[in-house]
Amino acid sequence: MSRTNNIIYKLVAFTIRLILRINGGFEIKGIENIPMEGGVLVAANHISYLDPPLIGSILPRRATFMARKGLFEIPLLKWMIKSAAFPVDRERTRPSTIKETVRRLKSGELIVIFPEGRRNESGELMEAKRGVGMIGSLSRAPVVPALIVGSDRALPVNAKWLKRARVTVVIGEPIYYSSITEGTNYSGHELHEEISIRVMAAIKEMQNNYEN
Question: How far apart are CA 74 and CA 57, in angstroms?
Fold first, then answer.
């Protein structure tokens, strides 16, 4: 990453945090659960188009996103996101995408993924796609579950601008590969499913605790 890109990323993150603070405030809980070194896969629920800039701006490490490939076909937006994201075919996850994500994790990057695969407008968590389990299995990187609350009120569906609302990101404890495989004999497919299930279960538990 060039020094210029790093400066731009930090400036954009600062600007987003400033806007969020003015717009109702933001809070991040469990920030200590983010490993500060090595590859990390942050897996969050997805309830608003605000989620990627929100979570990217408040994490203590620079984040790289898996972004829908169609976004890279929009000239201005492509220029804005190309240094912080790489394209993904949402309809069909290609082996090359998985390999690229695993490569980035093994090289020490922090990758943000939305396991449900798309924005959830109902508020109820959906099942995770197999991608998060496959990436977690192949990379053996810790998977950190994250719960986003309030971004759907700050930027509802079809809204043209932000509405005043407080947003919160709750970071859960990392799920380590060894904690899943120790004492088990999962096949590849079963392991992918188990990782995906555990990630969504952790997000669901945080959601229940937050609501209570």
Answer: 22
